[in-house]
């Protein structure tokens, strides 16, 4: 009889916990979508895992930055038990998404939490250069981002800026010392990237930079 009562109590506790956890999970990701910072804060205070993954494997912070749901993102970034280096299956970190979206304040907060400015493969500077987010690029470089970081196929931030970014982003990287002579695995330089995308302003900036570095009469 005692064993039977213990089993009933056990089932009651377990069946009570699982729906609560399931409900919290749904509430967490719904709140992110709605930028409902109060609900996220409440769930975290009640012990919800800040690093819980969505069904497609994304962390809550990554999703908040991508939406963007910036009020929720700030709550998560400031939550002490959050893993700021939680990466998805593509090896993307929250800092990379913040850089891609140009969220300068959140990039600053993530760096203050020791998010990795430099990492092998695609890096935050690649992502910032892709959309020409000058403030984010300058901030990353200020915190010692490797200016000639190479992606798995050898693409550098300058190449990304030349093809997808802006002439201003190209100039910032050139002025900061980016290597214009580097080539990716297909043998393409930043100038080639600019020409392929018909970004003639960026191509001309790169050409001018090369000319200033060569002896007079040689080009």
What does this structure look like?
With 219 residues, the protein is mainly alpha-helical. It folds into 2 domains: 1-88, Alpha Horseshoe (Serine Threonine Protein Phosphatase 5, Tetratricopeptide repeat); 117-219, Serine Threonine Protein Phosphatase 5, Tetratricopeptide repeat (Alpha Horseshoe), CATH 1.25.40.20. Helix content is 59%, strand content 0%. Helix 10 (167-175) runs parallel beside helix 12 and helix 11 packs antiparallel against helix 12. The radius of gyration is 23 Å and the shape is elongated.
Beta fraction of the residues? Answer: under 5%
Head-to-tail CA distance between termini: 94 Å
At the fourth CATH level, what is the homologous superfamily of the largest domain?
Answer: Ankyrin repeat-containing domain
Q: What do the pLDDT scores average to?
A: 90
Order of helices and strands: HHHHHHHHHHHH
Shape: elongated
At the first level of CATH, the class of the largest domain is: Mainly Alpha
| Count of individual beta strands | 0
Find the CATH topology of the largest domain.
Answer: Serine Threonine Protein Phosphatase 5, Tetratricopeptide repeat
What quaternary form is this? single chain
Number of helices: 12
pLDDT < 50 runs, ≥5 residues: 3-20
Number of domains: 2
Rg estimate, integer Å:
23 Å
Summarize the structure.
The protein has 219 residues and is mostly helical. The chain is built from 12 helices and no strands.
Blueprint of the fold:
Elements: H1 2-34, H2 37-45, H3 60-66, H4 70-78, H5 94-101, H6 104-112, H7 124-130, H8 134-142, H9 157-164, H10 167-175, H11 190-196, H12 200-213
Pfam family, one: Ank_2
ANK repeats: 90-118, 120-152, 153-185
Keywords: ANK repeat
